[in-house]
Amino acid sequence: MAALALIDDEPLVRESFARLLSSRDHATTCFESAEDFLKSAERGGYDCLIVDFRLPGLSGCELIRELRSQSVTTPVILLSGNVDESVSAQLEGITEVCTLDKPCLSADLFAMVDSCTQVSG
Fold it and tell me: Residue 117 to residues 3, 74, 82, 88: CA-CA distances in angstroms?
């Protein structure tokens, strides 16, 4: 079982992903914004972060950069409706980040979570 943080501003996405991940016995804590996640006491206590690219306030990439500047090296799965060159350019130089198109197949999400949590755990 992995401890996951899911950061997405869409309630339906948070609810469906959390339910899906719990079917694989992953403990998933949901946050509605990057700022909410940064305020949490256990921001470094997760095996993997699942972060939406487009968040109000700090974007997913900005959140990842902030965490890396604080030496938080938790693997991240960045969700985007369209992973293209502009997303890749924003991720340049950031380590331990995988991208996943949204919507995604549950098998793809599970495989990526498994891959990220094996690296960190």
Answer: 9, 9, 24, 22
Identify residue 6 by its one-letter amino acid code: L
Q: Does domain 3-120 bear CATH number 3.40.50.2300?
A: yes
**Domain boundaries defined on the chain:** 3-120
Per-residue pLDDT 10s for the chain (121 aa) are 899 999 999 999 899 999 999 999 999 999 999 999 999 877 668 999 999 988 999 999 899 999 989 888 899 999 887 655 665 566 666 656 778 887 888 999 999 999 888 854 4
3-state secondary structure 37-53: HHHCCCCCCCCEEEEEC
> 98 with 115: CB under 8 angstroms?
yes
